Amino acid sequence: METGRSRRPWGCPRSKRAIAMKRFTVIMLFMAVAAVNAAADGGMWMVNLIDKSLALKMRDAGMKIDPSMIYNETTASFSDAVVFFEQGCTGSVISDEGLVMTTHHCAYPDIVGVSSEDNNYLEDGFWAMTLEEERPIPGKNAMFLKYIIDVTDDVGEYIAETEREGKQINMRRMRFLMEKAVRDETGYKAVLSSMWCGEKYYMSLYEVYPDVRLVAAPGVSIASFGGDVDNWEWPQHKGDFAMYRIYAAPDGSPAEYSPENVPLSPRYSFAISTDGYSEGDFTLIMGYPDATGRYSSSFAVKDDIYRINPITVGMKEDRIRIIRGHMAENPAVRLKYYNTFFSLSNAREYDAGETDNILRHHILDSIASREAVLQAWVSEDPVRIERWGSLMGDLERKYADVAGISDQILYFTGTMIEGTGLYPYVRNMAVRKNRHGDSPKTVQRFADAFRAVGGMWKQLDPKVEKELLEYAVSVFFTHIDEEFRSPFHVYLEEIFGNDYSAMTDYVWENSFFTDKARYDSLSALVVPVLEDARSYEIGSCGEACDILRERIALYYDPLYQLLRSSRMYEFYTALSRVEDGVSVEMLEDKYARMLYSMRESSGIPQYPDANSTMRFTFGNVSPLSPRDAVYYSWRSTSDGIVQKYSPEKEDFAPDGRFMQLLCSGDWGRWAADDGKMYVDFLTDNDVTRGNSGSPVLDCNGKLIGMAFDANYESLAGGLYYLEDYNKAVCADIRYILWILDKYAGMSRIIEELGL
């Protein structure tokens, strides 16, 4: 029956004019998208993929060096002086004796690790006046990129062969086998990375130096001046730096710590410029940005800001409140929890700021425009329609289907796993047999885990942890559905109802993890087995492990049962049932490849999402105008420290001697041309988490500063780059040198730098 509208039967060919008009529309949309990308996409570019077009853009921005200086496998280049710390930070080699500079907040755990109540280096600063005073940091590795290999074809061959054999593709196993093969052949650490969600694969080869020693770090009141208040803000006035030295064997090869080791003679080190910079000057930043999601769909962004962030921000805020209260009362607690507090606060503000900026800058509208172009491009070609035609609808339905169980996973992770500092100790005590049975290594794992529990309160505070545990318990029982609660959880609820304080008391007082008397009693039964040499022999280690499991009796410990009787496996099993063979991640990967293909076909330059592989970003020193009629200069000076100084607020109260030096204005040779001390400055380089510690280079490749933060308006940058709003906050190298020289008296470092 006709409805008054003319209809074209399905399958009937459209007129040539209609086809031509549609193609014209798509071309115009492409032109608009290309223009936007050329102007607004900052770029975290791969160091091994610099083409002529990109080189010209850098030259136009003001770069004077040859682009081959960024990364070169045959001659020394900048990449040889960029250090990757496995903890997720970047560093830069700044001397011919292996001296490395990174941020103070990246060094927090190490500074705390060498501190004590008598020598609180976090508060007072650490300054090694001789090589002998430099402190080894166990477990810290410094990694240098040696090669990047395109292994896309190799991965394709593995997938094709697996499919021919009728086997299930196991990407994790493929990664393990490929990395092992390269490592065995070359001796380098090999890391396989997927780019554009599987469009390309690259293998990065690293030389790893395990002898890293702490050299210098200012007190936290200088390094983190402004604290949480100024974090992710501008202007800032932080001296956020620390220095390490990399040591090697006498022949220059990587070696574990030894008194015989010598300072590394690096392949390249950055020369330092004290000539300064001005607005508009070229800047190059290199480093290891952690992760971005700029190829995400609009559904992923909505899920992030409307569902995930409200849940995670709420839990982080409550944990911050608990920890802050105890830190304010006890300096010893402050020392133990400063790094945890900073990490929580940093993550909370990032999540909240991401939501705020996505909404404020109408980023969802921008992504909707991009998706209109995508859909027009897909609909133009039958092959594309077959591959991606239903994708947007599939994404919308899938996100709706998994929202409920995904909420459960967030609450479970935020309480039982991440909610306290206790979980790692509890988890590590669960030493299970591997498929080959127990071995002497199993006994050693028991020994390490049990002794770690005995020393737990050197790292944690009982009052803090008990309050965090009570909060975690209350959130868990309020938000986790009954189907995911274990029989032990049901038992607790039957006995205590919603009296979470009494529930926590019961668990706390009856666990050997938290009750010293119980731990000591258990120790009398366990330690003799751990100290018996026969426990570490092949023939008797199995019997020893059985005895240890019986005596420790984890499954009767209430804290273990509380934290470990429900497992992530149960949540993911439920999620898998809802997904029915097609996960959100699979659809998002498909979306990313669609976006990549569209840009590739239209000749739009593009870079993959950050994934802790080495990247570079270029830009210029620039001011910030975050809102209408609001303007911030591109640099901050020491005047701001004096203006913000408040002895009643620990985040704004450097020590008296520092303030006296600052107020004297004796900058010496570290002053700017106008006689002032520049502290921090802004550039429009594209950075994110993981870039902390990245070198900031001028047009001649000389080091003028170090990236340590970004501004609040950039917090949507993980999902979408905003031109004029995404800024890198950098420490001026002259301020760092002034602290080393005038405040710390480290003339040996100044001389080592050749200044």
TL;DR of this structure?
The chain is an alpha+beta fold and 755 residues long. The longest helix is centred in the middle third of the chain and has 32 residues, at 298-329.
Shape: globular
End-to-end C-alpha gap: 88 Å
Structural class: alpha+beta
Q: Average pLDDT value? A: 92
What percent of the residues sit in helical stretches (DSSP H or I)?
A: 40-55%
Strand content: 5-15%
Number of strands: 19
Specify the number of helices. 28
List low-confidence stretches: 1-41
Q: Major β-sheet, in short?
A: 11 strands, antiparallel
Rg over C-alpha atoms, rounded to the nearest angstrom: 28 Å
Explain what the structure shows.
- This protein is α+β, with helices and mostly antiparallel strands and 755 residues long.
- Strand 3 (89-93) and strand 4 form a beta hairpin.
- Among the domains are: 16-43; 74-91 and 102-267, no CATH class; 295-418 and 567-601.
- It has 28 helices and 19 strands.
- The protein starts with 15 loop residues before the first helix and ends with a helix.
List keywords for this structure.
755 residues, alpha+beta, 11-stranded antiparallel sheet, 8-stranded antiparallel sheet, 28 helices, 19 strands, 48% helix, 13% strand, globular, disordered N terminus
